[in-house]
Amino acid sequence: MIRAVVDPSVFVSAFIGNPDAGPGRLVDAWRDRRFVLIVSPLLLAELGEVLSRPKFARWAKDGRGDAYVSGFAARSEHQLDPSQPPTPAVRDPDDDYLVALMRATQADVLVSLDRDLLDAQLDDITVVDPAVFIGQLA
After folding, report:
1. In 3D, which of 89, 80, 83, 84 has the Cα closest to residue 44?
2. Which of 6, 66, 123, 138 is deepest in the core (most CB within 10 A)?
3. pTM of the model
4. Whole-angstrom Cα distance, residue 129 to residue 138?
5. Is 71 exposed, middle or buried, given 0-12, 13-18 or 19+ CB atoms closer than 10 A?
6. Under a CB-based contact definition with an 8 Å cutoff, are residues 9 and 114 in contact?
7. What is the pLDDT of residues 75-117, one digit of tens each?
8. For residue range 19-33, what is the model confidence (pLDDT) as tens digits?
9. Domains assigned to the chain
């Protein structure tokens, strides 16, 4: 089974966006257990922090954001955040932890909507957008 690290921005997009778009379909595939989601404390914390921002309040109110994050935490493969600071890998240093998590867990794919990750020249890591990933699961 494919093991994937998913950029929190994909989950945010699925939470607020069209359920038939790539991010929504990715969450459906996860719910259907079509791949193993790898999470870490930092990844879950970032997702929770983003959903707690005022601009997402209309979607995340009444505990919906917390429940969404808890759902991923409850049924995913948990890994510790890499103990070494991530080696700079992409344009946005805030994304380096995702690359470090990929390398530490030897996951099969990193799924992202972020151009900093999608455009990065990472020979040892496959980075794809959600629509491509869903196509790989078919």
Report:
1. 80
2. 6
3. 0.94
4. 15
5. middle
6. yes
7. 999 999 988 766 777 888 889 999 999 999 999 999 999 999 9
8. 999 999 999 999 999
9. 3-137 (3.40.50.1010)
